[in-house]
Known about the structure:
By secondary structure, this protein is mainly beta. It has no helices and 11 strands.
Amino acid sequence: MTANWTGFYLGGHAGYGWTEFTAGGATTSSDANGFAGGLLAGYNYQMHNWVIGVEGDWTSTAWKSSPFSVTPKSSAQGRYTDMVSARGRLGYAFDRTLVFGTVGWNRGEGSYSDTKNKIISDFSHSGTVFGGGIEYKLSRTVSVGVEGLFYEAGFSKTVLSPSGKKSTTFTGDDMSVVRARLSVQF
């Protein structure tokens, strides 16, 4: 079978991701990591061996940092809940195998909490996402693959306590995800 990569596709992905959080004048930080999975959709167009395309995805995460010290009497914790991205793809097909690079835009959401000042704050960020991967066609319509993505998502947000007298600055770092994918082409 000679593989044809042109067409719309839908699928899912599952993998592992990680990032880091800090808060206030903390000299320590805490990693947040764990499962990342979701849905993807896109379109590829093949010209000889070159394949260009667009892809969008939604990723749900359950990343939660361990509490970390902000001051001697206060600790903070960060969590990521979900991300979306829209990316372009460029690849080279070796019949059933497609090697590709990808770059685009991402947006993520989560929350922070500070135990002493009783601050709970939602946050969102947006930035560039890029990476690469490899896909293999199991049949004319089904492909599997692996990819790595790096999300430039660093952000900083200052929030006030409920009394309005104290503030804390929360900081999130860039994120990385390694995931497997399964797609069905139409």
